[in-house]
User: Fold these one by one.
Assistant:
Number 1:
Amino acid sequence: MQLAWLMLPVLGLAALRFRSAPAQEEEIVPGYTLQAELGRGGTAVVYAAVHKPTGQTYALKLLKGEPAMDQDAVARMRREVKLMRDLQHPGIVSLCDYGEHRGQHYMVLEKINGCTLREHLQTTRLSQAEALHHCQSLLESLAYAHDRNIIHRDLKPENLMLNENGQLRLLDFGFSRNAQRNTFETMDNSVAGTPAYMAPERLLCQTTPASDQYSLGLIAYEMLTGQPAIARGLDVAAVITKQMQEVPPAPRSLDASIPEAVDRFVMKLLAKKPEDRFENMQAALAEFLKMCLKRNE
């Protein structure tokens, strides 16, 4: 199993800072020795952790502070665990262990050697073949999750990792929902996630399976053109306005080498209304594979 470090992506999280785990925390999870800190967000910290019986290194996610006082964070981690137990796919980071010890809730995940897609895009312009390869990988992972009624709800380059073999891996199901449950975003119905990669309906506090299609379209757009569909540096209000009201320029207007079929595919994913996107993620994957087959004929 390819192992790699895990970034904890959350809205506004800065670049990862590697630090040593506090000595008093080393034995906080029985059987694991915490090492370098890999990342932290508002409610959790991720450490590299060695499993003492095997010597294997994992990414161990801990709720920080006094988790018992943050019932929403505890409920979110429990939901993430419940959803990830059902996900066994080569394009999705694996859940290896989980539990609670003396009030400390934790998850043990596969640790990936590589970098986030965001970090990769900051230094590299993908070739068209690479971008399409990663699109297919992400479509396959999401189709698999959607077939199990799991909507990711926080797709963005920070939540995708490229391992040392260049394989794209999907992580962080902390904001995910079961598609058969209610569609409101959080316990208090507030919006959870990253506005720059949110579908318009999600900004209205509702989610459909097609919401992941829109986020995928934004990622595909960025991989193919080298530019985000929504310019970086805008304030949240401006980002929300663009998501709700403005259609980005077609990818071909930025790079004429992008085939018309690929251009149409991406723009269909980016339709403002969920019903104007593909019927489901499997349909999107089927259309993508059909399109790629025609390109190769």
Number 2:
Amino acid sequence: MWLFLATEVLFFGGLILSWIYSRHWNQIGFDAGARETKLWIGTLNTGILITSSFTYAAGLTWIRAGNTRRLVQCLTVTLLLGVAFLALKFGLEWRDDFAKHLFPAASMFKITGAEEGGARLFFIFYFISTGLHGVHMVVGVALLLWIMQRARRGEFSALYHTPVHAVGLYWSFVDIVWLTLYPLIYLVGRG
């Protein structure tokens, strides 16, 4: 799992460094793009993911104590929080972005003038990074379901819970990626 996460760091790291580099050369357009994002959704989603990491960690603590029932309860809450994140990001925010003509390939892109090029680039990074993060969230939700199913069958105990720990590392990594994307998308350039 650590080796896999190292490759993910390289993958997302390159994307984030490209974002920062591009923003440096297109600051006005990136600022215009950032002002179009929904700060309340990004902030709420950040709180949701931080809480989901807490509930997953609580479940890991419970299985280390040998309590499978509490593990499943904590993972159920984590799963619901993950689904809430996806619903807000893609069901509400992306839908609104498309409705407001913020998709960068559209011929009727909302932002025009001197800011258009940089704003289009901002939204290219926005849709790629949040889309990739969303794919990782969906994989995380599937992994949660897999761990919950195995836990209900009694496959984990205080002595053996390595898969629970490995999936927890993945879930925490996906949350850390969001904590890096959040300021790039919603905070930088909003002032």
